[in-house]
Amino acid sequence: MENSDDLFRFVAALRAYTSYDLSDYSDRSLRRRLYKVLDDEKITIEELLQRLAQEPAYGERIVEAITVNTSELFRDPSVWLLLRSRIYPKYKTQAYLNIWHAGCSMGQEVYSNLMLLNELGLYDKARVYASDINAKILAAAQRGEYRYRFNLSYLDNFDLVINTNPLNYEEKLAIPYSKYLKIDEAKDLIKIHDDLRQKPIFRRNDLVKGVNPFFVRYDIIFCRNVLIYFNAALQNRLFEVFYRNLYPGGILVLGVHESIIGSWANKFERLSHVYVRKD
Ligand SMILES: C[S@@+](CC[C@H](N)C(=O)[O-])C[C@H]1O[C@@H](n2cnc3c(N)ncnc32)[C@H](O)[C@@H]1O
Predict the structure, then answer these.
(1) Mutate to test the pocket of ligand 1, among 76, 226, 257 (most ligand atoms within 8 A of CB)
(2) Pick the CATH number of 77-143+196-277 from 3.40.50.2300, 3.40.980.10, 3.30.300.230, 3.40.50.150
(3) Does the structure show a pLDDT above 80 at 1?
């Protein structure tokens, strides 16, 4: 039986017994995830709270289960086409380019970006950093393995972004997937090539703490489909973190259902779901 206090008690217990503070996550999605976890773990809220108090490491597992890790290669192709046609060309003359994927999940966004950077001749000058709160998912990101049959859309998206010239849609390219990944149908596996997997620096980081985990400034920050799980106060704190850690003119890429809200909207110029830091 669901109770309106459950969420409050769960968040308070995590705060008391672990380093996680989910107070500024959006109530609706967090509540939905909490009941899913109770269901999956086949425990009551009382049992969950008791176990959190007795066994802090259990909190790690629960937070991993609470986070939503859905992602895909070249998710929302129109955003990648915008990056391809309007954003990346201006980095051609720059010596290097720092990119942070905040909330990178299993790495699909990171590898999509590396493929695109390679096609545009920017791969060697890119330093790519990726972080997530979920250590288990980060380990999966480093493995760069995805199910094949379940993820056929990855290949359609690849063609839409890599084999399309957004400045001339008549021109069709024929770059094969095998340039970047190996498909093993028998094992139902898509595996990203080793050179791509070894390029990014992956690090665990909780965005709630408001800290830049890599101690560099960035030309581009991707934080897509993460802010939707946070309330307005936490979103605003993060806009400040992103603004401060971007170079002037730097780019913040959000998810297609996200936008900059409140006073931070005046600090960025909007180009669809891509935001340019104003100075
Ligand atoms: C839906 S996925 C988005 C993945 C990818 N950016 C994309 O758009 O496909 C959201 C990711 O945010 C991560 N996340 C949730 N809360 C976080 C936090 N406090 N700090 C860092 N990452 C967080 C989750 O673990 C998850 O991997």
Answers:
(1) 226
(2) 3.40.50.150
(3) no
